[in-house]
Amino acid sequence: MRRPPRILMALALALALSPGLSLLDGPAIAAGATPAKPGRGGSVKPTHHAPPPPEVSLAPAGSGAPGVAITMAPVGLSLEYPTMVQDLGTEACPPAALVAQLRLLGSPPISLAGASQDVTAPSGALAQPSASWEAATLYSLPADFWTQLHCLLSQAEDPLTVGLNLKTGQLSWAQQMVADAQGAATNGVSFSLGNEPDLYYLPDYASLDKPQPEEEALAVSLYLQLATYLQQALAGAPLIGPELALPEQWQRELPHVLETMHEQTVGVHMYPLSACGSPKAVTIRGLLSSLAANAPRRLAWVVADANAAGVPAIISEANSASCGGVAGVSDSPAAAVWAVRFVLSALDTGFREVRFHFSGNPYDPFIVSGGAVLTRPLESALVALNQWLAVGSTLHAIAGVRGLVVSAITEAAGSALVILDNQSAKAAPVLLTDAQSVHVQSLSAARAGLQEEQLSSPHGRIKLVLPANSVVAVSP
Fold first, then answer.
1. Secondary structure in 3-state letters for the chain
2. Looking at the structure, do residues 312 and 427 belong to the same domain, yes or no?
3. Considering 344, 372, 389, which residue would you say is the last residue of a domain?
4. Distance (Å, rounded) from C-alpha 361 to C-alpha 367?
5. 256 and 145 inside one domain
6. What whole-number distance in Å separates Cα of residue 362 and Cα of residue 360?
7. Residue 81 lies in a domain
8. By CB distance 3.0 to 4.6 Å, which of 97, 241, 390, 461 could disulfide with 15?
9. Are 458 and 381 found together in one domain?
10. What is the pLDDT of residue 459?
11. What is the pLDDT of residue 305?
């Protein structure tokens, strides 16, 4: 369960005519100079003054600088089918704690997707006993799954995306799943055909170390053949796709796929780190690196292709590290800091939304156990992001603030919130100007949870000290 917020900063004094002080979980840190000590022979060594802290104004932002319009909930959820079945529980309606958690997250879009998508069969579709070894590996949905899901969506009001089994499914299965999903959804429904189809086609193992001629074209041809066959089950319902694992492998062919499938939303997957080979490759240091934070920028060309097709692009499946993440990293406070940076980078690149994956592994933002919701640090970031980045607001990058990455979220009336990102391994001071009274929320790699504090100054100048590897949101 969520713990009560701890104090982020115990004191902020006005900086008008005298040096300021700030407190951060310990004794005061003086901003003034330290007296010089005499050296040998009574000489006085010169004093080296630290540069003044950078200043950030909370005055309403001007309209001259372009920004990124927030048109969707910036954060959504992507769950494997068995994970959703487990979370729904055994009663006719899901646990009240799960409904409350989804509402706390802002009723974000929910996708039923992932690796289980291409092995899931609708209830009653599989013969018993299984007719083949392949059939024995398929996952059959419980008979009451869609009824339970309808109860959840009726209370939580989340939009729904349903992934259909493209790799091992049949048209009749897709038709049944579409009908069941449309009956369960209460706030809109869309569909996805297959999970990571760029991995369907595997060349001869004997020649894996050599480039395969026309490999990309062959994989795309297979996908389009399967997808156009199952697409008739949708009867015009919105389609998200093509859900690529490694979009770069289809870079030349993606415009052709979009033109053929007419997706209403381009969806691709993105994991900055991989735990599929060796978990040792996934570290907190790596997760906090600029490479992990700015990974969405590598897919700017996907946004360009989507824009050319006249549709939005989203990262429809993401998390800290592929293959379920790594305990001690993916479930650490550092994951929350990474998530804020990753989503801001995705939005700045042009993606409209990021959906975080659940698979019953360490990277899940929360788990449902015995009717209770047990949150992990990543959950705090998802809650904060959907609060900070309200639909209808605009995200602006603020350049020129020494030592910090700064973003402003503005509404029609002016500046609503400023996000300060200290990506350094050392604490960083900052001076807030035009700040009579502020609400401060902080995520730190060293402490779990969203810390909150209300600060005020009669002189409109407040000094904060940002912890190492932390993200702080300040709203006037």
1. CCCCCCCCCCEECECCCCCCEEECCCCCEECCCCCCCECHHHCECCCCCCCCCCEEECCCCCCCCCCEECCCCCEEEEECHHHHHHHHCCCCCCCHHHHHHHHHCCCCCEEECCHHHHHEECCCCCCCCCCCHHHHCCEECCCCHHHHHHHHHHHHCCCEEEEECCCCCCHHHHHHHHHHHHHHCCCCEEEEECCCHHHCCCCCHHHCCCCCCCHHHHHHHHHHHHHHHHHCCCCCCCEEEEEECCHHHHCCCHHHHHHHHCCCEEEEEECCEECCCCHHHCCHHHHCCHHHHCHHHHHHHHHHHHHHHCCCEEEEEECCEECCCCCCCCCCHHHHHHHHHHHHHHHHHCCCCEEEEECCCCCCCEEEECCEEEECHHHHHHHHHHHHCCCCCEEEEECCCCCCEEEEEEECCEEEEEEEEECCCCCEEEEEECCCEEEEEEEECCEEEEEEEEEECCCCEEEEEECCCEEEEEEC
2. no
3. 389
4. 9
5. yes
6. 7
7. yes
8. 461
9. no
10. 85
11. 98
- C-beta atoms surrounding 462 within 10 Å: 27
Please state the pTM of the whole predicted model.
Answer: 0.87
Q: CA 262, 67, 305: angle at the middle one, nearest 5?
A: 25
Residues 372, 442 within the same domain: no
What percentage of the chain reaches a pLDDT higher than 70? 83
- Residue where a domain terminates, one of 360, 389, 418: 389
68 — phi, psi (to 5°)?
-105, 120
Query: Is the residue at 29 inside a domain?
Result: no
Range of the domain at 420: 1-15+52-70+390-476
Cα–Cα nearest to 181, from 235, 108, 103: 235
Residues 383 and 400 in one domain: no
Q: For the domain that residue 254 is a member of, what is the CATH number?
A: 3.20.20.80
- The phi and psi torsions of 107 (rounded to 5 degrees) equal 50, 60
Provide the 10 A C-beta neighbour count for residue 430.
24
Same domain, yes or no: 382 and 362: yes
| CA separation for the pair 59, 57 (Å, rounded) | 5
Q: Which residues pair with 134 in a beta bridge?
A: none
Distance from C-alpha of 274 to C-alpha of 255, rounded to nearest angstrom: 27
| 462, 12 contact by CB (below 8 A) | yes
Q: What is the pLDDT of residues 345-366, one digit of tens each?
A: 999 999 999 999 999 999 999 9
> Looking at the domain assignment, is residue 47 inside a domain?
no
CA distance 244 to 370: 35
The phi and psi torsions of 51 (rounded to 5 degrees) equal -65, 150
| Average pLDDT for the chain | 86
Quick one: pLDDT at residue 48?
60
pLDDT over threshold 60, residue 170: yes
Which tokens hold the place of 254? 């993606």
**Higher-scoring residue by pLDDT: 380, 207:** 380
Whole-number Å distance between alpha carbons of 443 and 178: 40
